[in-house]
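Handout, page 2. Input:
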Amino acid sequence: MVFIADNFLLNNETAQRLYRNHAAAQPILDYHCHLSARDIAEDRCFKDLFEIWLEGDHYKWRALRANGVPERYCTGDASPYEKFQAWASTVPKTLRNPLYHWTHLELKRYFGIDELLNERTALGIWKRANALLATREFSAQGILKKFCVKAICTTDDPADDLHWHRKIAASDLPVRVYPTFRPDRALVVNSPEDFNSWLDRLEAVANCQITRLMDFLDALAARHADFHRHGGRLSDHGLNHCYADLCNEREAAFIFDKARSGRAVTPEEHSKFASYMMLYFGSLDAEKGWTKQLHLGACRDVNTPMRAQLGPDSGFDSIGDWPQANACALYLDRLTQGNALPKTVIYNANPNDNYVFATMIGSFQDSSVAGKIQLGSAWWFLDQKEGIEWQINALSNAGLLCRFVGMVTDSRSFMSYPRHEYFRRVLCNLLGHEMETGQLPAEEDLIGGMIEDICFKNAAGFLALELPAPEPILEASAARR
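Output:
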């Protein structure tokens, strides 16, 4: 019996019809991801399933560790096939974890493989997938075309020179690839060594000297403008919570000088400086009509020995439990008072805060654009069926689901595009159930139109990105069904 069948996750006829007629054929606008611009520019080909599937996937590493697999099979010196074998042996243990769904959906959509992955089927699946990966259809650019991706926005540091983005723009790739301004390291005055090392890189790419606060602000503004010239229209910040400690320019300059000279900065000074900078970044975004993304609530790198061994982003993170409401309100309010509140997407890591953010965004909407402040798609530990439903329900109950800008992969892997299909199936199943039970009207044009908007059209209109002209997408639609 096929696991990923045509009606996977679609539990009634109305849901099946909504997905088939309104969701499946929509193209993808992946406006937040961590794909490598270099891999796209060089049209990287992947040697095997390890390279494309396991190389940097901390979701899978966490499952392997939970299954008692030694670290050498996660991030260590085991061979690619040994690591794949370890993963294949772990997959049957992931039942009811979203990894089980994602794994088999990806095998089906990329390679047409219907078999369940386990220790027994591992070698055959490895050989079949690797044979396809050797073809151009499965290069980095080939995958973007295969899944009808119209545009992606990578995540880039202001100190990046955007060389690979220029190469992509000069190529004939029909998919638009834009940089996203991610200035998290501009806030780390609490680590003077790291801060100054990064400032040296920023000086080089901005072709300036940074000795005072105003030099720093000018350099960041110049880089922001350069991202804009490269088509960037979004910024992004990974924060525990919003910073909202009042800080004037004199105080910020004093704190900057301390850090620039290598002196320790207190936690209070760090919070004040970060607050000052976040207001500055908000004004830059508002001035250029950008969209600001705030990723809030994750507790990162909690395992100190493993961070020392492997570095950050290695799978040792959790949901955090910081108070969010007051700080978020103060931050958005101060931007509003300064007439500098940009379009904003708030991603929430803690399900306890879904309604906090869903109601908060309603306090800062205005007539400049519909859905100006967004509750972002279910993120990180929540981007699975239940978490997606929680996010949709909170937004529906407290705001306007019809204005939602939809799903992102938030991924470092070229194997993640079925995440959009997964979201669309969950959305259609939820709405289809409510149509069949009379909670929503049995008007397919009405509900189907909203689904089309959420899957692609809202984001396309909201983000002000230059997109390629529409083209037939029947082949991609069939692949996703």
